[in-house]
């Protein structure tokens, strides 16, 4: 009985550690998205102010601001797509040793995070 209990505790500990790592990575990506959404909010406020001013130079500046908003939206969409694919891959993956799963999680979740920053 004692050996079996140790194995169950070890498996639980490895599983919990794995889950913690997955959530940490997901939260990191969500924080990136959150920052981009905050930036877009500020950009949209600026576009509205420029538009309300009706000053030609400000209206010209809106082109660049709107372009930046669109770029951010594309990045956000890509990050959410990556999260979706990564999550699907993690769920479908057969159970393996914790270290191997951790490496695979990092490949799935971290690999594309840097390209979105």
TrEMBL record:
GO terms for biological process: entrainment of circadian clock; positive regulation of circadian rhythm; rhythmic process. Keywords: Biological rhythms, Nucleus. Residues 97-117 are annotated as: Disordered. It is found in: Nucleus. Its main location: nucleus. Residues 20-96 form the Protein EARLY FLOWERING domain. It comes from the Eukaryota. Belongs to the EARLY FLOWERING 4 family. This is Protein EARLY FLOWERING 4 domain-containing protein. It comes from Saponaria officinalis. The lineage of its organism: Eukaryota, Viridiplantae, Streptophyta, Embryophyta, Tracheophyta.
